[in-house]
Structure formats: structure tokens, C-alpha cells
Amino acid sequence: MPDHPRDDPAASTIERLVNVVALPIGRWDADARLVFCNTPYQQWAARSRDELIGRTLAELFGDEAWQRARPAFERAFRGATTSYERQLRHGTQAGRWARIQVFPDTDADGAVQSVFTIATDIHEDVTAREALTAARVRLDRFTENIPYPLTYVDAGFVLRFVNKAYCEIAGQPAEALLGRHIGAVRGARRWAEHEPHFRRALEGKTVQYTRLVSGIANSPAQPRWLRTSYVPDFDADGMVVGLYTVTIDVHDLTVAQEQLRRSVERDTLTDVYSRRTMMDRIDAAMVSALHEPVALFFVDLDGFKGVNDRRGHREGDALLVKVARALQASVRAEDAVGRFGGDEFLVLASVRSPAGARALALHMLEAVRKAGADVEGGGVSASIGYAIAPLDTQHPLKLLQAADDAMYAAKRLGKDRAHHGPARSEDASLGAVSAAAAPPA
Questions:
Q1: Which of 267, 357, 375, 435 is the most exposed place for a label (fewest CB within 10 A)?
Q2: Model pTM?
């Protein structure tokens, strides 16, 4: 192609065709001088044709631009089609990224006399790629440095990724772990414990497993609650191709939740059940009372006010704790003991008969008397009223009311005694039972 295409009809035709292409196109000789450019190239370079033609790439765009272009130009002059990328520094394109394709212009004998360049704006692609690369770097740093063990296993449970925290708990470097079955890494006992959760996740379900673990690096002496999440990794067809696992320390959260649960479920002073919990237990007991009778005992201390007046509330609180423990010790583990309020307690227990309920009431009377025997100024006893479901009622509130009425009846009858039902004449005190149990003279 001659240096002046206008003198060559064929070249003029090519020039007109090239001008139609809406991309900057230039032709460069062996000295990297621009010998032809189309109209879009002039607009892209923000210069006239006379300012461009005959000048080297370095003269037009600077030494930095030429150093970026030079390897591609050399390969093109050897007959290869290649490309390079650079950030532009000229005209309205300053700051934008472009990809420059460089390909040889051969004559009839196949010799390369010049090279063509075509510039394409790839700024959005480059910035998106840089953002993705930066995001990947941040993600890599995060996954590597997150203080929780993180792994990725394939569908055969072979480790394909482990982070630093996992290497620490495994006690091995990453290169010794990757490519191995996670069961072999963690040992047979732990694999047997975790395998069901892995297999459920492999079915496409996110699974969580919380357990108490001993020997944690930052707390070797105290077991801590840990939670492992098993998250399936799906491919484009929705098939599970692997699993992510992350283990986090939930000890403080678990302990706080347990404390909150106990604060609702338990009386803060005595640690027996709270009033609310006892009402829930009574409601639940009514469901099965037809098959297994239950007795509700309302226990009110005799003389407790005097303890507070003489010894103060601190001694009174200590006595309540002793009484609560005594009541718990006097019933079975499956029975429920709760504080109703003040010096009043509730006991809910399964019974076989009214006689069994009365025997348990007397047993509790003796336990309370022993707990309050060493109180200065006189011992503390209890008045106990009780009602039985379904014998007396099958309604929770009516059962509570009947036991409460029976307790007040025991008070009126002289205290330190147990009474069944407000309308019943039978009652018993420790003294009466002791007398009845004494051998004949």
C-alpha cells in the first residue's frame, strides 16, 4: 500500500471502507510511523490527519505508550496477530482503557511491510475485572484470616480448601490436608459424629450441629459450645458438587440463652421453678391426668414473717432456699417444685391414690420442719393444702384454687398440717401422724 492512498484507486477504495468502520484504525511502517489512519482514529486521537501522519507512536503518545506497544509491534512484524492493553493519556479518552489489536499487512510475496492497529474501548471490562480481582483478593484474605475454621469438600468428602483456622485445629499445614478425606483428617470417632450431617447437606439441605467441645486452643481448660454449619454447593444444573463447612464459637451466646431461659423458667432466689413455669407444668399435667393422677400441693410457711422481722430479709431468703431444697429432696426427680411467691411453694407430683398424696404431704411437712428447726426464736413449719386431678377437678385453675383453699383450711385448723380439699374433713399433722405411728403402751 503506497504512502499516499489517494493516488491509488484501490487504496482509496480501502480507505473509504476503513472510514466506514466505527473503530480507530491505523497503519504503521517498520519505524512505527503512522502512514495511514481513518476518520474515527483522528477523532479518537483528538488530532488532525496532518498532525498524525508521519509521526512515530512514541512522538504521538509518549514513550510509555510505545513501551507498551513495542512487543506487540515486533510480533506483528514477524507475522503474528496479537494485542495489548493500555490506559490512554490523550484527548477525551484520557484515563480510559483500550485494547489495541496489531496484525501484519503483507504484500503479494507474503512479506510484512507494515502493521495495522485497531483500538477497542474496554474500560468497563477492565474496571469490572479489576473490581472482581479486588473482591477475590478481599475474599481470599477474609476466608484465610477469619478466626473460624472453614473448609470446602467435594462430593466425595475430600478436602479441597482449608483456611488457617482449620489448619490450627487440625494441627497440620494446608498442604498435608488438601486432597485427603476429611474423615481421615479428623479421625474415626469425630467422622462418625459428623458424617450424618455431611450426608444430609449432600442431599441439598443446610445443616447445623451444635456441641460442647473440649480442648479448644484459646480455652483448653473449659469446654466451649461450637456450631458447625454444613452448606451445599450447587452447580448450574442444581446438583450438589461439594459442601462448605464453617465452625463458629457460640459459647457466650449459648450460655446467655441458657441464663435467659433459666431466668424465665427458674425462680432467681431458690432456683426451683418459677410461678409461670409451674402453671405451664400444671396445664401439661392435666392432659395425662386421666391415665396418671397428679396431686398439686400448696405449701405456705408458718411463722416466716417473724423470721424476717427478727432476723432480717437476708436470713429470710436463706430460709427460703433451705425450704426449696428440702422440698426438692422430698419428691422424685420427675416431680416439679416451684415458688409461687413470697413464702409459698407449689409441688406437682404423680400419685397413685389419695392415700399416696397424703403420705407425700406428710413427708414434705417433716422436711420443712427439719429445714426450719434451727431458726432462732422458734422453728418454722408449713401448712399444706392439696388437690388431686382428676379426682377433684380436671381444670388447671380450679386445681390450683382447690389446693390454695385447702392450705388456708390447714391454717385455720392449727397450722403445721396437711389438708386435702377445702370441703373435706380429713387433715393430718406431724403430731397426729407421729401419735398414730407410735407403738401401743
A1: 435
A2: 0.46
- Residue-by-residue DSSP string for 318-378: HHHHHHHHHHHHHS-TTSEEEEEETTEEEEEEE-SSHHHHHHHHHHHHHHHHHHTTT-TTS
* Dist. CA 233–CA 421, nearest whole Å: 65
> Same domain, yes or no, for 402 and 278?
yes
Looking at 125, 157, 181, which one is the last position of a domain?
A: 125
Verify that 280 and 151 share a domain, yes or no. no
Residues 242 and 277 in one domain: no
Q: Tally the residues of the chain.
A: 441
pLDDT per position as a tens digit, 10-60: 455 555 556 656 799 999 999 999 999 998 999 999 999 999 999 999 999
Q: How far apart are CA 349 and CA 35, in angstroms?
A: 105
* Cell digits of residue 256: 446467655
pLDDT digits (tens, 9 = 90+) for 136-146: 777 778 788 88
Helix (H) or strand (E) run with residue 294 in it: strand 294-302
212 & 348 share domain: no
Chain CA centroid to CA 256, Å? 15
Find the helix or strand (DSSP H, E) in which 114 lies: strand 112-121
Domain extent, residue 410, equals 266-437
Dist. CA 286–CA 282, nearest whole Å: 6
| Four-residue CA torsion sign, 256, 261, 266, 267 | positive
- Enclosing H/E stretch for 9: helix 9-20
**Residue 95 CA neighbour count, 13 Å, CB half:** 1
What whole-number distance in Å separates Cα of residue 337 and Cα of residue 300? 13
Would you say 40 and 19 are in contact if contact means Cβ atoms under 8 Å apart? yes
* 8 Cβ contact list (under 8 Å, min separation 6): 1, 2
d(CA 179, CA 309): 75
Residue 119 in 3-state DSSP?
A: strand
The listed range with the strongest mean pLDDT (77-81, 221-225, 430-434) is 77-81
- Between CA 395 and CA 401 the distance in angstroms is 10
Q: Is the dihedral of CA 169, 170, 173, 178 positive or negative?
A: negative
Query: Given 95, 125, 155, which residue is the final one in a domain?
Result: 125
- Measured CA to CA, the distance from residue 305 to residue 313 in angstroms comes to 10
Do 47 and 71 have their domain in common? yes
What are residue 341's DSSP bridge partners?
A: 344
* HSE (side-chain half, CA atoms, 13 Å) at 394: 7
CB proximity list for 23: less than 8 A, separation 6 or greater: 40, 118, 119, 120
- Domain count of the fold of the chain: 3
Distance CA 395, CA 229 (A): 45
